[in-house]
Write a structure and sequence with these properties.
Layout lengths: L2 H27 L6 H18 L3 E10 L6 E12 L3 E11 L1 H19 L11 E11 L2 E10 L7 E8 L5 E8 L7 E13 L2 E13 L3 E17 L5 E3 L3
Antiparallel strand pairs: 1-2, 1-10, 2-3, 4-5, 5-6, 6-7, 7-8, 8-9, 9-10, 10-11
């Protein structure tokens, strides 16, 4: 059989495979992806609804500092953090072991969180702070997500340049990854931050983080944080906080 006749026989098969592939792609995509402006608008609506559900809570959080190998923790810090909506956040460091550098970094991180709570509008994922671009649609921990690129509109260490994973059903964030728009300090270079979010008693909160940076004179280090225990509360007469447990 000459090459021309072989090519003619193969053509229908190639066409069939092409059509099947297109069908699989269409099936994976499901409904049409909304315009990026629509995704961002719905993100804002979901964020507003979530803030309306916030109530006082306390969380015990564990921090571990690793060097470049990530094999042995160089420092471990435990902190108790209290939040009262809309913008009050305070913390107490309750346990420190290992390098004192770990405590200094954790204290800076928590002070940064407190500053953000007081002026959350200046850092939230909104068109006022970021330009967004649609990148792709993918599964993340069993949830279909829209992955958007975020580009800070101002050069500041308070905003990140990177990507966000937006739930296609709830429009809440599952993950944020990026680098500060400006170096956090003279001591830190090439910083990279990843934030994870989850449900806590009906509130959508940041529940874990991973921060990596080159520390001058000490090399590459990674700080991992995870929330260990929550206690949600309700405000009662006189402004005191009544725990309701979790």
């Amino acid at each position: 059989m000459d090459q021309r006749r072989v090519a003619q026989k193969r053509f229908p098969l190639l066409l069939l495979l092409h059509v099947a592939g297109a069908g699989l792609a269409l099936g994976y995509a499901g409904e049409a992806v909304p315009r990026v402006e629509t995704i961002v608008l719905r993100m804002g609506q979901a964020r507003t609804e979530n803030r309306a559900r916030l109530r006082p809570y306390s969380v015990t959080r564990d921090y571990q500092l690793f060097d470049d190998g990530k094999q042995t923790s160089r420092s471990e810090v435990t902190a108790d953090i209290n939040f009262v909506p809309p913008d009050f956040k305070e913390f107490v460091i309750s346990k420190v072991s290992g390098m004192r550098l770990g405590e200094r970094i954790v204290r800076q991180m928590l002070e940064h969180e407190s500053d953000i709570a007081k002026d959350y509008g200046s850092t939230e994922m909104s068109p006022a702070n970021y330009e967004f671009r649609f990148l792709r649609q993918e599964d993340f921990n069993g949830r279909n997500c829209y992955v958007l690129e975020m580009l800070p509109r101002r050069k500041t260490k308070m905003l990140l340049r990177g990507q966000i994973w937006v739930d296609s059903a709830t429009y809440l964030l599952h993950r944020v990854e990026g680098e500060p728009g400006k170096a956090p300090s003279w001591w830190l270079r090439n910083a990279r931050i990843a934030l994870s979010y989850g449900d806590v008693g009906g509130m959508w909160l940041q529940t874990a983080s991973e921060s990596t940076a080159d520390v001058r004179l000490l090399g590459r280090h990674t700080m991992l944080s995870r929330d260990l225990k929550y206690q949600t509360s309700e405000l009662v007469a006189g402004g005191s906080v009544l725990p309701i447990g979790r």
